[in-house]
Design a protein that fits this description.
Mannose-Binding Protein A, Chain A, four-stranded mixed beta sheet, 3 helices, alpha+beta, globular, four-stranded antiparallel beta sheet, 10 strands
Length: 162
């Protein structure tokens, strides 16, 4: 499992995929977050310049069970682009800023319609077939729950840089 720390006097923080983010003196966290994200596909999607992933600018509004949510991503077209998929737990956690709550996203993020809810990931629990990993965007915590519950899903495009 990857290690994630908080902003410290050492001027760096490690996030979900183990990528370092350098905090520049005199530049606010909101300005740094704004530089991290780029609107693409005529504003329908957001490129995370830190991870290389492209996210829907607005997550799916439909609350559905795990299987249906994951399948919906595979057929989705956003910004004229196909090939979307459900993110892994590690990919979705890269959006989390543990210093923020309700939602637990970096200050200055360009996303809209973000509800402080729990979002599905594509990662099933390896020990229990009826359970999958989710991320709470209220607290930023990863959690597991039964796949029969209804949640939203935030589709992603591309492969993360490791």
């Amino acid at each position: 499992m990857t290690r994630r720390g908080r902003v410290q006097a050492g001027n760096w923080w490690l996030v979900g995929l183990g990528l370092a983010v350098v905090f520049l003196p005199g530049v606010s966290l909101a300005e740094q977050s704004a530089a991290r994200f780029t609107l693409v596909m005529s504003g329908a999607a957001v490129k995370d310049n830190q991870t290389g992933l492209t996210w829907e600018q607005e997550p799916d509004r439909i609350h559905d069970v795990w299987d249906a949510s994951v399948a919906r991503c595979l057929t989705k077209e956003v910004g004229g682009q196909q090939g979307w998929r459900a993110p892994s737990i590690d990919e979705l956690k890269t959006l989390i800023d543990t210093s923020q709550h309700d939602p637990a996203l970096p200050a200055g993020h360009p996303f809209s319609n973000i509800k402080s809810e729990i979002y599905w990931t594509a990662t099933p629990d390896p020990k229990d077939d009826i359970v999958a990993w989710q991320v709470s965007f209220f607290s930023g915590e990863p959690v597991t729950d039964q796949k029969s519950g209804t949640r939203r899903l935030w589709c992603v495009l591309g492969e993360s840089r490791k």
